[in-house]
Amino acid sequence: MFLAILAVFASVSCVGGISPRAWGEEPKSSVKPIRALLVLGGCCHDYATQKELLSKGIAERAHVEVVIAFDSDKTTSHLNPIYESPGFADGFDVIIHDECSADVKDLAIIDRILAPHRKGTPAVILHCGMHCYRSEGYPAAVTPWFEFTGLQSTGHGPQAPIDITFGAPQHAITEGQSTWTTINEELYNNSSGKLLASATPLARGKQTATNKKGETNTAESVIVWTNNYRDTAKVFATTLGHNNDTVSDDRYLDLITRGLLWTCGKLNDDYLK
Fold this sequence. Notes:
The two termini are 29 Å apart. This protein has a domain at 2-20 and 29-155 and 223-263: 3-Layer(aba) Sandwich (Rossmann fold), CATH 3.40.50. The chain is of the alpha/beta class. The chain is built from six helices and nine strands.
């Protein structure tokens, strides 16, 4: 197993690859730290900064080792090299999908990415991870990636603050969170108007913005949810996280850390710092 993981690491080293260090390598408790693979890169975001914000922020909050697979390519059509190996998930307890790869559409590749989750590996999906892998049939059909996310989104609104409200009673993931308003962020739409039956909403976002014509419009969508993927893998998802100021916000980092722990069945005092 160890040799297999090393082989995967080597396959991405030439493109920014997996960071040689993992935040949280020395836990302060006797629990075995969760090993999380953070996959990110592609179009439209400052992933070079966000990989550090996310990995450090999660490790500061929980006993989690975050290993980074960063692709420096800035297009939507480039496959993160970590996925070139069928064994990319070997040795990891959870995969964090934060890539922006809408134009990677080959079903064989998508099946390879989803294979560990179909076998039970939990997942966290962040922001543009929701807009990835738009294979044939999108958006009319629930294509494989959107069965995995639990909610199909086809686009987003302007850069404007989002008012976040949490469902009642609060889920264990959102415990301690109260209504707050983001800085300028993108509100992703819910193209079908609702989650899949396998998904559960945890928070909604409302955004009011004025367009170039001076018209004021208000939109509202589910922005945080969980998905029970094929009754096999737990998924936590949020469409928040476009800008660095959001990704570095303590409330955001608290939310995704608790979501990650929940997917692994470890949302408890032993794993929270």
